[in-house]
């Protein structure tokens, strides 16, 4: 199953604000090409070529631009740092842009609410925000107010220079405020740990997902499990955990009080669109601006069910500590982070270096950490020389493998079976360590 990357030309991103876009220009225009060059990150963005500068300049002068793409491009350009040759682009936007940041802001974000100007100016000047300012920014980003250029600029600015802990804390508060009332209710008391599984919502392109089998194994040990998922904003659009759980046909969690009921054998599916529709609306925006903004990290730690253990993943090792910190902000007492999972998911590589980092919150608020590597001698039977690359990835085949393994403990697909077995043993080591090192107050709610 493949979800189309195209955006409807009259797609409504916010209730009162419809964005008119010619279909063929949505993701094939000079601004998007510019974002691909300058929107990579603090250490990866490059100067624009002369030819692309000229194309973008002409496009800005002659074409009907997409507001959020325009904001995202200039936000990325300014965050990267403008070269002398790229100054031409600022002049095309605003003749006095080099001298007056307020006029630059007014030209770039003409329909943003007046109260957002101070924050917009701080972002354009590469200043960081306080927690309160970040919360105000987040509430605007997730609102129905006009200001798509501002949204694109802010998302790019935050992404390129990397968000501070204070900014993440404020954005997290804003996201929590977007939860529907049924997910703001206090969950029922539980007799054991509640585990939330979360991996990148864009899923995979060349490997099978094993998430339901992990949830099943944890539930068989007496843990409740929820699997956080949502629509893919890209760049991968082939298969994700939402596709898998929809294919399994199991009920999705519709509010915290549902936790009183018995979940399916694969745990509860927790759909972002059910939890916070305003966050789900950002899927279209994120497709338009092409690069992954702050939400790609933040959405994995959102914790509406007040779970106390998070099992998640990072591909870049530098994000492990950030993920633990964000998990703590979201109320998790214990965290297991898979490093270098296959395509960034919860499925470990059976060939390359992989492993988990566990963190247990202590009474003083700090996190005690312990790592478990996948190359342990006892795990060698579940390793291989290489990971299979699936060229023709299909949801139905992933579902067949999931159900067959669930019922019989094997599928005949050696790569899939070894990956599940390696994952289960690795996560079991982490859970055993974690549950024995959590502070007493974290045991039950």
Question: What does this protein structure show overall?
Answer:
- With 445 residues, the chain is an alpha/beta fold.
- It has 18 helices and nine strands.
- It has helices at 30-38, 50-62, 67-80, 87-93, 101-108, 117-124, 131-141, 148-161, 165-177, 211-220, 241-248, 272-275, 277-280, 282-289, 295-298, 320-329, 395-408, 414-437; strands at residues 12-14, 17-18, 194-198, 224-229, 268-271, 309-314, 334-339, 355-361, 367-373.
- Strands 5-4-3-6-7-8-9 form a seven-stranded mixed sheet, sandwiched between helices.
- Strand 8 and strand 9 (367-373) form a beta hairpin.
- Helix 2 packs parallel to helix 4 (87-93), helix 3 (67-80) packs parallel to helix 8 and helix 9 crosses helix 16.
- It is globular, with a radius of gyration of 23 Å.
H and E string: EEHHHHHHHHHEHEHEHHHHEHEEEHH
The coarse silhouette is globular
Proportion in helices: 40-55%
Helix-strand makeup class: alpha/beta
Radius of gyration: 23 Å
Low-confidence stretches: 1-24
- Oligomer state equals single chain
Biggest sheet: strand arrangement: 5-4-3-6-7-8-9
Number of helices, where a helix is a run of at least 4 consecutive DSSP H or I residues: 18
Beta content comes to 5-15%
Main beta sheet: 7 strands, mixed
Total count of strands: 9
Euclidean distance between termini CA atoms: 40 Å
> Average pLDDT value?
90
């Amino acid at each position: 199953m493949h979800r189309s990357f195209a955006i409807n030309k009259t797609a409504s991103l916010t209730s009162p604000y419809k964005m008119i876009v010619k279909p063929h220009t949505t993701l094939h225009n000079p601004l998007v090409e510019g974002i691909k060059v300058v929107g990579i990150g603090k250490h990866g963005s490059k100067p624009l070529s002369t030819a692309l500068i000229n194309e973008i300049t002409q496009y800005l002068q002659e074409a009907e631009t997409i507001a959020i793409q325009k904001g995202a491009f200039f936000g990325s350009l300014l965050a990267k740092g403008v070269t002398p040759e790229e100054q031409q682009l600022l002049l095309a936007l605003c003749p006095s842009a080099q001298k007056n940041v307020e006029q630059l802001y007014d030209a770039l974000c003409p329909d943003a609410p007046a109260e957002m100007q101070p924050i917009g100016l701080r972002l354009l000047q590469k200043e960081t925000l306080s927690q309160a300012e970040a919360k105000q920014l987040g509430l605007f980003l997730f609102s129905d107010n006009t200001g798509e250029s501002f949204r694109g600029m802010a998302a790019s600015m935050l992404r390129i220079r990397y968000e501070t802990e204070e900014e993440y804390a404020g954005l997290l508060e804003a996201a929590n405020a977007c939860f529907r009332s049924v997910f703001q209710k206090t969950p029922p008391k539980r007799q054991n740990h509640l585990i939330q599984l979360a991996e990148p919502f864009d899923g995979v392109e060349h490997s099978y997902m094993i998430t339901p089998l992990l949830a099943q194994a944890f539930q068989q040990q007496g843990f409740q499990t929820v699997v956080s998922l949502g629509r893919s904003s890209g760049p991968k659009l082939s298969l994700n955990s939402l596709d898998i759980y929809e294919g399994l046909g199991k009920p999705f969690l519709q509010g915290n009080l549902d936790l009183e009921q018995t979940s399916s054998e694969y745990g509860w599916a927790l759909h972002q669109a059910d939890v916070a529709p305003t966050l789900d609306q950002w899927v279209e925006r994120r497709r338009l601006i092409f690069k992954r903004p702050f939400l790609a990290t933040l959405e994995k730690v959102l914790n509406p069910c007040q779970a106390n253990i998070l099992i998640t993943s990072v591909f870049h090792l530098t994000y492990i500590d950030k993920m633990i910190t964000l998990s703590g902000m979201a109320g998790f007492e214990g965290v297991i982070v898979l490093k270098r999972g296959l395509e960034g998911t919860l499925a470990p590589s059976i060939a390359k270096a992989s492993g988990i980092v566990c963190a247990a919150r202590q009474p003083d608020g700090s996190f005690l950490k312990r790592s478990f590597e996948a190359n342990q001698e006892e795990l060698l039977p579940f390793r291989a020389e290489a990971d299979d690359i699936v060229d023709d990835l299909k949801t139905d085949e992933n579902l067949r493998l999931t159900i067959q393994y669930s019922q019989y403990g094997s599928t005949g697909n050696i790569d899939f079976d070894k990956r599940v077995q390696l994952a289960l043993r690795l996560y079991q080591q982490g859970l055993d360590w974690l549950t024995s090192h959590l502070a007493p107050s974290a045991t039950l709610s």
